[in-house]
């Protein structure tokens, strides 16, 4: 993760997971897992030396054969990328349409706009909606704050499969409704 994204996730008011955005709560150390890491043996993929998992990170940092092994993997993956990432819109972080701040997750954008722009009546394009397949990047909301509070109470990623077409989704909904009876 880049630093601005991590900082957004770790705000003191609501620290969230950088992947799934669920709330982080203070926990206790997983002592059973620590013990397992201390007692499980593994082999370095570079030099074939045996060691405990707990020592692997420091070994990997100094093992030139392991680093060559990693670089070979990187070269193999980067030769032919699976997708052209420019064709995929960013649906995870958004800029504020009022000011120059960037890298807000959906909840962060709502909080930011409520705190700093609640009285701004300027018509703006919703960056969240504009990133959606059905979104219109030219549509300016007459009341952006109300739009944010009504439309963006939840994250679309939880409920939407962006790759499925409308007919497939409708068929899935109908099948689920029959199963739920």
Automatic annotation (TrEMBL):
C2HC RNF-type domain: residues covered: 44-63
Keywords for the protein's UniProt record, in alphabetical order: Ligase, Transferase, Ubl conjugation pathway
Protein's pathway: Protein modification; protein ubiquitination
Documented EC number(s): 2.3.2.27
Listed InterPro entries: Di19_Zn-bd, RNF_E3_ubiq-protein_ligase, ZF_C2HC_RNF, Znf_RING/FYVE/PHD
GO molecular function: ligase activity; ubiquitin protein ligase activity
Catalytic activity: S-ubiquitinyl-[E2 ubiquitin-conjugating enzyme]-L-cysteine + [acceptor protein]-L-lysine = [E2 ubiquitin-conjugating enzyme]-L-cysteine + N(6)-ubiquitinyl-[acceptor protein]-L-lysine
Entry's Gene Ontology BP terms: protein polyubiquitination; ubiquitin-dependent protein catabolic process
Name recorded for this polypeptide: RING-type E3 ubiquitin transferase
Organism expressing this protein natively: Daphoenositta chrysoptera (varied sittella)
């Amino acid at each position: 993760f880049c630093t601005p994204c991590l900082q957004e996730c770790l705000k003191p008011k609501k620290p969230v997971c950088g992947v799934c955005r669920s709330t982080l709560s203070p926990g206790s150390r997983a002592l059973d897992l620590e013990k397992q890491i201390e007692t499980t043996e593994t082999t370095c993929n570079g030099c074939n030396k045996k060691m405990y998992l707990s020592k692997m990170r420091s070994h990997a940092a100094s093992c030139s054969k392991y680093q060559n092994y990693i670089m070979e993997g990187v070269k193999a993956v980067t030769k032919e990328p699976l997708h052209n990432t420019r064709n995929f819109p960013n649906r995870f972080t958004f800029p504020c349409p009022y000011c120059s701040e960037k890298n807000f997750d959906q909840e962060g954008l709502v909080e930011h706009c409520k705190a700093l722009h609640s009285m701004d009546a300027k018509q703006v394009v919703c960056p969240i909606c504009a990133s959606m397949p059905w979104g219109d990047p030219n549509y300016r909301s007459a009341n952006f704050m109300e739009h944010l509070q009504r439309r963006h109470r939840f994250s679309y990623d939880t409920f939407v499969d962006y790759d499925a077409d409308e007919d497939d989704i409708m068929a899935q909904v109908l099948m689920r409704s029959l199963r739920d009876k």
